[in-house]
Amino acid sequence: MREKNLFKFVLPLFIIFFASAIFSIKATAEELDPRIESAIYSLYSSGAYKSRIGDWNGALLDFERAYKLRQTSSELLYRYAEALLKTGRFKEAEKFASRALDEDSTVSDAYLILAELAMNSGDLDKADRYLSRRLELKKDDIESRMRLGLLRENRNDLEGVVSAFKDYPALKPGVAIANFHLGIALTRLKRYEEAIDAFKTSLRENPDYIEAAENIAILSEELNNDSETIEGWQKVLKIDPDRTEAYKRLITFYASKERYNDALNELEILLQRVPDKKGTLRKLMAQLALQEGDLSRAAKTMYELAELSGTETSYIEAALVSAAAKTETETLLSSLRGAWKSGRRLTAAITLAQAYVAAGRDSSAIKLLDTLQYDSISDSTAIFNLGLLWFKLGDTNRSIELFLALIEHDPYNASALNFVGYTWAERGEKLDRAEEFIRRALAVEPQNPQYIDSLGWVFYQKGLYDIARLHLEKAYHLMPEEPEIMEHLGDVYAKLGRRDDAVIYYNKALELDKTEHSEILKKKISDLEL
Predict the structure, then answer these.
(1) If you placed Cys at 206, which of 135, 176, 295, 455 could pair as Cys (CB 3.0 to 4.6 Å)?
(2) Residue ending a domain, choose from 107, 135, 163
(3) Residue 344 belongs to a domain with what CATH number?
């Protein structure tokens, strides 16, 4: 039972005790009316009961009436603040919790209210201070300790997390969770051995805590402790025999140590658990090749697997690895052709066409795209990418046609609106409609620097250079590393006769633009410096 300051009343015959909540009344120098004390007792008792059953509105009324009768009781002030908090009157709750502490700085529950309010307002530093003070007064409050540790984790205060959880009492609720988060913080601090001890404590308290077992294995491998690495992964698999990733990690570990028989044994166990996955052994062997950095071998192996299974997914997996290998162009194209033929999905066809373009086979891309049939409503993302692809292939009209279909379906597709509007602006046509489109895009994303740049370029093409300058300067402020915005800003400065400023921004763009367009920038600089 919490004991507050004991106050002597002028009343000669009694002191009021409240058994259910420990309620102390601070007397003034004058004698108190027993009827008032009786009323306070009754209201407090009623409010406390209503608090326990969750009737916080009723509790608030009782505590408010009691407060009007006696305004200097720390316990009453705290309970009043608690009711205000529960009913959403946060500013008043903070006021009365603070007043409770002014009356008695050891009312630890008031610190919980202030901590809750601080967290609600996003002031995590203040919440940390209040919870810390609460723990100074009530060291055995494991709930507050847990909240403090998790709060510090959210603030990325790793040392603070360690401080909160390192002495978490054993045999208390939450000890496994506390030690797990302690282990995570210690891991991030690169204090691996201490982290392993924390994870082991967590696992000891909760033998099924699979994440703790996984971290033990991972950190043991980091410390080159082979026996604990193997033991850790075996523990993971004991907890969850179907943990495919654990098998993969253990197989990879064995392979890295050239323990190929052990790796193969684990593969066989895995195959027994997932017998319906044809080609799993070769797939895992391909993944081992990935671990070893042999992307070319992995790509070819996965393409062979895709040919066996004939599934769209297997072809896509082979294509991804082929793309990462960078040297397997033919394997990549074969994989993407397989994905397109097996699934006949628009996205697969577009990806294949993009690969053709990247390989310099534009005619193959055009031939493929000309055969496609699609509904612009069914897959807007695919249609958007298709529009970009046609643009890259030089068919701007077909590209715009696709984007206009998207806009008709979704009038506020910001990316499509900006693309069409900027394309018209670049071509110097339909400038009023281009402005309309770009303003609609900005209504969706008002701070998008690329859209702001597009609007500025519309005004530039209209000859409204001062207005264009304002938009382009704003775009540059929001995206100062974009050479196209720098070039546009140089263009408008040149039109306004600010030749020195124009040269400055052309040079900035030139520093970042390493493409063929750099020759255009050099000519613009040369023309201004003549």
Answers:
(1) 176
(2) 135
(3) 1.25.40.10
